[in-house]
Write a structure and sequence with these properties.
Blueprint lengths: L5 E5 L3 H13 L3 E5 L2 H10 L4 E5 L7 H10 L6 E6 L3 H10 L3 E5 L3 H15 L6 E3 L3 E4 L4 E4 L12 E3 L2 H12 L4 E2 L1 H8 L8 H15 L4 E4 L3 E4 L3
Parallel strand pairs: 1-2, 1-3, 3-4, 4-5
Antiparallel strand pairs: 6-7, 7-8, 8-9, 10-12, 11-12
Helix pairs in contact: 2-3, 6-8, 7-8
The structure holds calcium ion.
Length: about 230
């Protein structure tokens, strides 16, 4: 199962940061790291992360302030805050500011791992087995897509169509973000694997492939902006 989830790790303790980075990467996450609040806020605004791990005690701008600013801008990015152990007020402040979950330091990586999974599952309801839209069903294990209904044709072909890894990740990302304009650069960030040539023209090629498989009308081109998945 290949799922590329993109995480932002904000932690100013270099040892902890490096340690978490390696473990998260090993698990298959695409991870960006920063050690200060100003860069963190900017990155969280610019890049559509699937999840942020946010330390509260940060140089330049506190994690709490970063979180508040995101929420004030209606940025609903899922956030797990890292708080000092036994600092209940930090947790309360964090939840008030819009945190989705917290973890008190020090913690075992396994606990963070479980919280990340739980939060991703909560955020993407369908994560873990099958993702569905109005007329498509995408199986994450087999990376196959099934067209559930083709208009009025009740005997529509129910065969599952096999996708390449990139087609699968692209469709998966579209289905998890319906009715949102997704720029080519955002799509690349969520779709690339290590060997992916980060040329945005490639996205056009993959979108063309996908349209042939699932139907042209489901992915609308927004000129100069990106694409919109409309099968809702
Ligand atoms: Ca810190």
């Amino acid at each position: 199962m290949i799922i590329t989830m993109r995480l932002l790790l904000v932690e100013d303790d270099p040892e902890l940061s490096q340690n978490l980075f390696q473990k998260l990467q090993k698990e298959g996450f695409a991870v960006d790291v920063t050690d200060n609040g100003i860069d963190a806020e900017f990155m969280g605004d610019e890049i559509l992360y699937d999840l942020v791990i946010l330390d509260l005690g940060l140089p330049q701008r506190s994690g709490l302030e970063v979180l508040k600013n995101w929420r004030n801008k209606n940025n609903a990015i899922p956030v797990i805050i890292l708080t000092a152990r036994d600092a209940w007020h930090e947790r309360v402040d964090g939840f008030k500011a819009g945190a989705d979950d917290y973890l008190g330091k020090p913690f075992h990586y396994e606990e963070l791992q479980l919280r990340i999974r739980a939060l991703l599952r909560r955020h993407h309801k369908n994560l873990g087995d099958t993702i569905t839209s109005k007329s498509l069903s995408l199986d994450e294990e087999t990376q196959r897509v099934t067209i559930i209904s083709k208009g009025d044709d009740m005997n529509a072909d129910q065969d599952a169509i096999e996708l390449t890894g990139t087609e699968f990740r692209l469709l998966r990302y579209f289905m998890l973000n319906p009715n949102k304009i997704l720029s080519k650069s955002r799509l690349i960030e969520h779709v690339y694997d290590q060997n992916f040539d980060k040329d945005s023209n490639l996205i056009e090629v993959y979108v063309r492939h996908l349209r042939k498989i699932i139907g042209k009308e489901k992915i609308v081109t927004k000129r100069g902006q990106g694409y919109l998945f409309t099968d809702v």
